[in-house]
Amino acid sequence: MKQGSFTDDGWVDLHIHSTASDGTFSPKEILKMALDLNLRAISITDHDTIKGTIEARRHLTQKDTELLSGVEISTSLHGDTLHMLGYLIDPEDPALTRALSGLHEARKIRNPKIIEKLQQLGIELTYDEVLAVAEGEVGRPHIAECLVRKNVVQSPDEAFRKYIGKDRPAYVDKYRLPPAEAAKLISDAGGIPVLAHPFTIGIDSEAEMDKIISELVSKGLKGIEVYYSEHTDTQFALYKRMAARHNLLITGGTDFHGARKPQIRMGTGKGNLRIPYALVRKLKEYKETGRPNETSTRGGHTT
Ligand code: AMP
Ligand code: ZN
Ligand code: FE
Ligand code: FE
What we know:
alpha/beta; TIM Barrel; 2 domains; 5-stranded mixed β-sheet; binds zinc ion
């Protein structure tokens, strides 16, 4: 832990995937794990679906960890994928629900096309086999898992590198929302749009990052995921400066996927992540008042 970190207020994990998308634990199991880990708040942020949040809410009891409603929407900025988290949304919001069903349809159109391409490459894999390993939204991680099971590749990462990653021979793009639309849907559903894992944008230059963040802020972005399992100390510091400069809320999470990303643990990521509850307080204050508050947020992050 760095100097200045504290533990008396509790730790959180605001980026968790369940079986509603490509995580391997059900929302109910996640609630139990969060309680066992003594986390003070969590958010289940499944890809393009709020079903994980809705199911967790159904199981939530008084003694459970605080649950923030959440979602992670795939958007497209200048042709590149950019994930946007939405916190404290109304999970029953009709417009959001409608838009997410549209993204669900886009997956249903894309996934068989990927399978077809794999088949053309001589790989014997059927769509049914992929559906059999998924419970909720079906994505490339499920396809990668099938390729590992069939010994076509040794790891999901190899599946992405060789076949299904961007620009690889079995890659097929799918419809993604423009960031402005995703941000509006989230805000109109009473939520807070947050840029997920900014390191995936692939920019290290401060000036370039500044430009992208300005653009996203003009499209309605309100927060940035500064605490993240894969962020280096340098990236953590850069994103924290971005938050300060653009008056953005700060969030953090591990991107826990259970057995599909076995190196990432709920609450602590690769073992050294600590995300302070103070961030949640600020999100809730923002939702109440429409303004980020001014008190400082300290926390610990080491790599
Ligand atoms: P999809 O939304 O179906 O296109 O799948 C995208 C998801 O695949 C991302 O959210 C990641 O969780 C996962 N993913 C992307 N690249 C990799 C990789 N190289 N190794 C493992 N998982 C990946
Ligand atoms: Zn995922
Ligand atoms: Fe993501
Ligand atoms: Fe995620």
